[in-house]
């Protein structure tokens, strides 16, 4: 049984790494068993059929009256048809960053219990049905607009479930945040938006540049220069879209030493100049 990397197998652009992603999963086979490498936390809103998920030390089964919030990880799951000849669920993936942003905005800084459970069962109700219908009606080719809409819908469902389940759900959300960060990752991610060169970050990690590059690629699955540039340019785009700062006020903040190099890199990545975004 091959391992399925989810949501990667559902994303058409293999280079895309969305923070929020919705996918309609349908099947007509009687039973499908899968080994799943789930790289993002995921809502599985089951609408037709049955689902069973096996974790390291427990399992859970749900029907169409229930949905699941699943923690990222390696799981085994089985999808089964019910009385109808189709299995259908709407999958809503979200990154740890978006979850962290939500928790800092709307919840208290509480500590989850040590007995962490990799799933949360949600009882479907009319509000959730209405929410899923609204997701189905999101249909636009404007990527920026879609991203903004999905963020609104992401916050909506989490706020509703916090209202419905209270502290129990809040504790579960906090348990989804990774607790351990390696010293290497801590140094790298604390310097994402600095103007330090790669060899300087490598020095802070007590590594030679060549060792740092090998270690980085193994950890992040991407070359460090490209990874850092993408992170910095995306932050610059987010800031410029807010409309409060100009490109000349942004480039130093995200690690570029001059406006010209920043503008060239920005246009190469996004197809428009920074001034086009900020105007």
Any descriptors?
single chain; about 280 residues; alpha+beta; Jelly Rolls; Arc Repressor Mutant, subunit A; 2 domains; five-stranded mixed beta sheet; five-stranded antiparallel beta sheet; 11 helices; 10 strands; about 25% strand; globular; DNA-binding transcription factor activity
Describe the protein in words:
The model has no long low-confidence stretch (mean pLDDT 85). This protein is α+β, with helices and mostly antiparallel strands. It has helices at residues 96-106, 126-136, 143-165, 167-175, 183-190, 198-204, 209-220, 224-242, 247-250, 259-270, 274-278; strands spanning 3-6, 20-27, 31-38, 41-48, 50-54, 59-62, 66-70, 73-80, 87-94, 119-123. It starts with a strand and ends with a helix. Keywords: DNA-binding, Transcription, Transcription regulation. This is AraC-like DNA-binding protein.
Oligomerization: single chain
- Strand and helix order: EEEEEEEEEHEHHHHHHHHHH
| Fraction in helix | 40-55%
**What is the mean pLDDT?**
85
- Which topology of the largest domain does CATH recognise? Jelly Rolls
Report strand order across the widest sheet: 1-3-8-5-6
Shape: globular
The low-confidence runs, each spanning 5 or more residues with pLDDT under 50, are: none
Structure classification: alpha+beta
CATH class of the largest domain: Mainly Beta
């Amino acid at each position: 049984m091959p391992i399925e990397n989810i949501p990667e197998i559902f994303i058409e652009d293999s280079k895309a790494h969305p923070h929020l992603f919705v996918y309609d999963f349908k099947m007509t086979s009687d039973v499908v068993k899968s080994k799943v490498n789930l790289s993002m936390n995921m809502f599985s809103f089951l609408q037709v059929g049955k689902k069973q998920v096996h974790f390291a030390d427990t399992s859970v089964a749900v029907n169409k009256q229930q949905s699941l919030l699943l923690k990222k990880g390696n799981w085994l799951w089985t999808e089964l048809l019910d009385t109808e000849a189709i299995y259908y669920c709407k999958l809503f993936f979200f990154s740890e960053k978006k979850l962290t942003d939500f928790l800092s905005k709307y919840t208290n800084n509480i500590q989850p219990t040590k007995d962490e459970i990799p799933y949360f069962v949600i009882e479907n109700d009319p509000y959730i049905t209405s929410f899923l219908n609204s997701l189905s009606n999101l249909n636009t080719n404007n990527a920026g607009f879609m991203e903004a809409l999905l963020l609104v819908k992401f916050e909506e469902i989490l706020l509703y479930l916090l209202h419905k389940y209270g502290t129990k759900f809040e504790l579960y959300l906090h348990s989804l945040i990774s607790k351990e960060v390696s010293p290497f990752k801590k140094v790298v991610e604390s310097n994402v938006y600095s103007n330090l060169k790669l060899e300087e970050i490598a020095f802070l990690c007590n590594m030679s540049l060549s060792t740092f590059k090998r270690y980085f690629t193994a950890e992040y699955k991407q070359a460090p220069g490209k990874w850092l540039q993408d992170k910095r340019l995306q932050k610059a785009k987010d800031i410029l879209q807010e409309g409060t700062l100009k490109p000349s006020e942004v480039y130093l903040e995200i690690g570029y030493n001059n406006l010209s190099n920043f503008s060239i890199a920005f246009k190469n990545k996004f197809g428009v100049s920074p001034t086009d975004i900020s105007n």
